[in-house]
Amino acid sequence: MSTRLPLYRMLNAPLGGGSESEVTYVFRSDDGIDPGATAVSGDQYALGKDSDWNPAEHPLVVQCVIERAPLLEAIFGPHGVVNTEAEVLLTLEWASADSCWRTLGPVHSLRHKAEDGDVVLDIELEPGTVRGSGLLSVQVFLGRYTAEFVPGFAHQPGARLGLLAQSIEIVIDGDGSLFPVLEESLGAEGPLWELKACWSDPQDEPFSSDYVALVLNNAHPHFEQLRDRRALNIEQSPLMRQVFAAWLALVIAQVKEDMGVQFDTYVGAPDADEGIASIADAVRSFIRLGDLKTGSLPELFISTQCWLDHRVRELESAA
Amino acid sequence: MQESGAFLLRALQNEEAPLLDLLVRESVQNALDAGRKGNQDLPVSVNFHIREHSLGAIASIFSEGLNLQTLGKRYPRTAKLLEIRDSGTEGLTGPMTFDSVVANGQHGNFLKLVFEIGRTRTDDSAGGSWGLGKTCYFRMGAGLVIYYSRIEISEGYEERLVASLVEDESRVDRLQLMTQTGIAWWGANDRLQAITAPKDIHNILKALGVQPFTGKTTGTAIIIPLLKENLLPVFDHEDGAAPWWHSSYEDYVNVAIQRWFSARLDNPFFASGRYLSASVNGMEIASADMLPIFRASQCLYDRAIGEAPEEGDYLTARGIKSDEVFCKAIQLRGEFVASGHAGWLLGVALTSRQLQMEAPDNAPNPETCIFSRPGSGAPHRPIVTFMRSPGMNICWDDSIDSRSWAGGFAGFADGRYVVALFLPDSEQELLPSEARGLRSTIQNLEGYLRSCERADHAAWVDLNGGRVVQKIRAQCGRALKEFGVPPQPSVTVKPLMRMSRKLAELVLPSRGFGGDGRFGKASPRAVIGQRARGGALLSPELEIMEVRHAASGIVMKWCLRWGMVLPNIPREITVSVDSEAGPITFDTWVESGLGAFPFRLESPRIINATLAVKSMEVADGAAVRLTIGTVSVQPGLMLEGELHVRMTEFGGKLLRPVIGVRIFDSNGVAE
């Protein structure tokens, strides 16, 4: 094991450690969509909380706001990485092995002169280009160096001077449950909703919209009545709850029919503990959580409706 | 249960497949198994000879034991004989009698082929499995089979010959009357011992027109005299004339070899063993002479393996572009220890012109080539085959059932023919499964699929509780269906993300039923085998805690974990020069004549030592040696100190130092 020593002074994330306000991040998208970022731990942000943001469809814009005083101190101060004559370049760097790419945002030039206001950096990641998770960091480069050679200072323009703050990790995909709901125009004369069921093996294929989905017809006159934006924490109208209950019962009945005699054994077996759960896993979960009665179709419809109403009451009282 | 001739003749339980197909599958597979140990660069040769033979030859060889009168009545015309001869194989080795098998010893090929009809094989990569396949030999003719082999032994070579007869014991006109079971063997004096005297063997071979193996050649010849006259399957003439291979046994065998061994026949790119070289009555079957559908199938195999150049292959020659060959990794969830990769599915759609069905070639259509039945009108059902590592097509499936290999895809309306091949990833290890019955040994996919084959190897059927084959078939079906009917991406369909998240919160556990990132990264799994930091370390480790730059060089604070390998031997902190090819040590730098070494370690200082630690510059300042006094070193010893890395005037400021640690070796060679 060996360690390479740096030839010149470098930054080792001097900001952000002591004061949260020194470096802050703001996440946004276009069309006023909030990506729903939440800090799940010190350096990790998760996206999607209470949000319509979809990484395949919407861009992700991250803005980084840096307080000027500690920034100047870290770079030009006695323990800094350049002297006061130099110019440094600041930029946000996105690097994601899951997304298979890295990039730098627009560059901000910084000199040691009295200026007010925070330094703002931003970077825009196009729709469909981010997945898994990635690291976002504030990178510092040497811009111009005018003075004589000073031992310990970099003197090649473009030299990396290190990280200004600890990288943050942005999580786009995780293992958070997602109900497969799609919006599609089925025509004004078409049904309000339908079940998309194109699995070949419910025990094998994941519970995702590629294989199973609740399709809502956005051309239907009653489409707008499915959402109830007044119910802050729930957001489904009573009509939507009825649609949802019918859909759940239909999926359970279809999976039961598909699996035949295996179904009862499967429902009684312990939960799988690997990867994204299958369609059959989801059905088993519904049956267990809702104590659903699968003996007959009428019983299943009744127990599903009762379970949903009960859950809504639970969430409303918790809100 | 006492085995009887009637039982053995029905044991294979495959009355649908033509006998000649069963024979080709069984005999070539046996030959390939027997050739596994040979030179991997050379093919396994299997030669089929079909010729007439005199009844007198049989009468002279089997004068004892056969009812010659009945023989004459049953075969009034000149009879035919089939000789299946493999060479470059190990032959029928092993003990010749059960008495000579040592305790727990191997029975060997001889006993397995000749006497152990119905004994299951246990090695995963063997083509054969149940031992019942060879019963098809007895069904080809009167039930008489002669086994001739030449093997290598420590003293040179040995020839062996033995014959057996299996016939329905209830037949009135059976050929031998001495046993009640319908089963008999002919050999040396005691009848259950093979003849080994070359002169006796050669006399018998001469009577049958069989050439003995000579020189260094080893191998086996199965000789089946008194062939039945109705071995060619019936072709429905109403829809057209029978194809050319339905006119003689020779031609039919030729096509049957192509049909079942298309991947391995004359294919040096075959990946899991020696390739197959086959001939019929002396005419070798070259890859280029195969029927177009089998050439296409071989090409799909080669594309799956990826060793053969695509530029000159058959599909390219027929105008198929690279992206027109469908190639999909088949992934299964929750079945394998490592990744979910179960194998590759490759497929292609070919026009009748590409399949050379038009003038001037006028090749028969794929349905006729594969199923020996007249071609149907468009759409033509997709045809899927699959194989294990021995390279024999398990079957050709053209079902259009939604749960079939083609997933219900009925074929292209424009008349293109779809042919596809699934090649499993044999080495994938299966997870132990209670449903499948926990096994004490690790089972790989090859072994599992082998255990899913019946005696005729004509299908994969999951073991009770297993779902691997079902899942593979379902995935292949889905993929082929999408190949045939690509899902139309609808611009109007889009996910309702907020609703998806809200409904999930209503009815699902927060994690595990999707890939959403709103709760952060996926829950970490337990990592096994990671060493806890601070535990007893074996090798020394050096960590650089702090770096300061000064006019003369770099000042660094370090922390050394001493380690428990040779604890009383000094450790050395070293400096090398970073380079594209890795760190250049002091010795290498000097030996290479690169001038003065650009770095020097100076002013070593120990900060935290509770023990007496001596430090000393060595190797002209390229290392600092740390020695602990008389006290023995305790596990977990950690030293902290400071060290200057001085840079010389010559390039030192442009080169990058690399700091490391090693155990000093008193012989002058550092570890």
Description:
Chain A has 319 residues and is α+β, with helices and mostly antiparallel strands. Chain A has helices at residues 68-76, 238-259, 262-268, 279-290, 297-318; strands at 2-4, 11-15, 23-28, 38-41, 44-46, 60-66, 87-96, 101-104, 108-111, 119-125, 133-144, 160-165, 168-171, 181-184, 193-197, 212-217. In chain A, the strands form three sheets. In chain A, strands 2, 4, 5, 7, 8, 9, 11, 12 and 13 form a nine-stranded mixed sheet that branches. In chain A, a hairpin with a 2-residue loop joins strand 4 and strand 5. Chain B has helices spanning 5-10, 19-34, 55-61, 68-74, 108-115, 135-139, 198-208, 249-261, 292-305, 314-317, 366-371, 445-451, 468-484, 497-507, 586-591, and strands spanning 44-53, 79-87, 144-153, 156-166, 183-186, 219-224, 276-280, 283-284, 326-331, 341-350, 383-387, 393-397, 417-424, 494-495, 511-516, 541-550, 553-561, 571-577, 599-606, 613-618, 623-628, 638-647, 657-663. In chain B, strands 5-4-3-6-2-1-7-8 form an eight-stranded mixed sheet, sandwiched between helices. Chain B has a five-stranded mixed sheet with strand order 9-10-13-11-12, sandwiched between helices. In chain B, a hairpin with a 2-residue loop joins strand 16 (541-550) and strand 17. The longest helix of chain B is centred in the last third of the chain and has 17 residues, at 468-484. In chain B, 43% of the residues are buried. Classes of the chains: A alpha+beta (319), B alpha+beta (671).
Task: Give the SSE layout.
The complex is a heterodimer of chains A (319) and B (671).
Chain A: E1 2-4, E2 11-15, E3 23-28, E4 38-41, E5 44-46, E6 60-66, H1 68-76, E7 87-96, E8 101-104, E9 108-111, E10 119-125, E11 133-144, E12 160-165, E13 168-171, E14 181-184, E15 193-197, E16 212-217, H2 238-259, H3 262-268, H4 279-290, H5 297-318
Parallel strand pairs in A: 2-12, 5-13, 14-16
Antiparallel strand pairs in A: 3-6, 4-5, 6-10, 7-8, 7-9, 7-11, 11-12, 11-13, 15-16
Helix pairs in contact in A: 2-4, 2-5
Chain B: H1 5-10, H2 19-34, E1 44-53, H3 55-61, H4 68-74, E2 79-87, H5 108-115, H6 135-139, E3 144-153, E4 156-166, E5 183-186, H7 198-208, E6 219-224, H8 249-261, E7 276-280, E8 283-284, H9 292-305, H10 314-317, E9 326-331, E10 341-350, H11 366-371, E11 383-387, E12 393-397, E13 417-424, H12 445-451, H13 468-484, E14 494-495, H14 497-507, E15 511-516, E16 541-550, E17 553-561, E18 571-577, H15 586-591, E19 599-606, E20 613-618, E21 623-628, E22 638-647, E23 657-663
Parallel strand pairs in B: 1-7, 11-13
Antiparallel strand pairs in B: 1-2, 2-6, 3-4, 3-6, 4-5, 7-8, 9-10, 10-13, 11-12, 16-17, 17-22, 18-21, 18-23, 19-22, 20-21
Helix pairs in contact in B: 2-8
